[in-house]
């Protein structure tokens, strides 16, 4: 058995099996190709989900930074003279590091393709000192502001954004 060459000769195949092996090879190639395409599409989908999660994580990080910056600004400035109580409501602002503390400047800012803005709103309280859902100018609370921080960016799905709403008070009073 060793030393002899095995040769494939189609003469020894039955007449109904001749030429059928090429069809079998094409079918096997088609099955392997479709499995490869399925695996490849899974990796592409996984990559897109991963990118989206990474972008969302970066946006949340920018929101957290802005929240801390606004709190720092509140703590280092007089509420009514040069602080939050003196800012115009319903206008876009953004935090900026100024020497050793944060400052608040008008307009939005762009950081690595993300647009960040901070909007301050007036707050009103009812007779029980609870914050009212809709603002009532007759019950305006001068020592509380609603802050909405929004970070938006463009990805494969178009414009996407994350936001956070919170309240800050003049705790020094």
Report on this model:
It is a single chain. The chain has 173 residues and is of the alpha+beta class. The protein has one domain. Helix content is 33%, strand content 32%. It has one helix spanning 20-76, and strands at residues 92-98, 101-106, 109-111, 114-124, 140-155, 158-169. Strands 1, 2, 3, 4, 5 and 6 form a 6-stranded antiparallel β-sheet that branches.
Compact overview of the structure:
Keywords: Membrane, Transmembrane, Transmembrane helix. With 173 residues, this protein is α+β, with helices and mostly antiparallel strands.
Low-confidence stretches: none
- The H/E string reads HEEEEEE
Q: Please describe the biggest sheet, giving its number of strands, its sense, and whether it closes into a barrel.
A: 6 strands, antiparallel
What is the residue-mean pLDDT, rounded to a whole number?
87
The number of helical runs is 1
State the shape: elongated
Strand content bin:
25-35%
Share of helical residues: 25-40%
Structural class of the helices, strands and pairings?
alpha+beta
Rg measurement, Å: 33 Å
How many extended strands?
A: 6
Number of domains: 1
Distance from N terminus to C terminus (CA atoms, Å) equals 101 Å
SSE topology sketch:
Layout: H1 20-76, E1 92-98, E2 101-106, E3 109-111, E4 114-124, E5 140-155, E6 158-169
Antiparallel strand pairs: 1-2, 1-4, 3-4, 4-5, 5-6
Task: Provide tags for this entry.
membrane, 173 residues, 6 strands, alpha+beta, 6-stranded antiparallel beta sheet, single chain, 1 helix, 32% strand
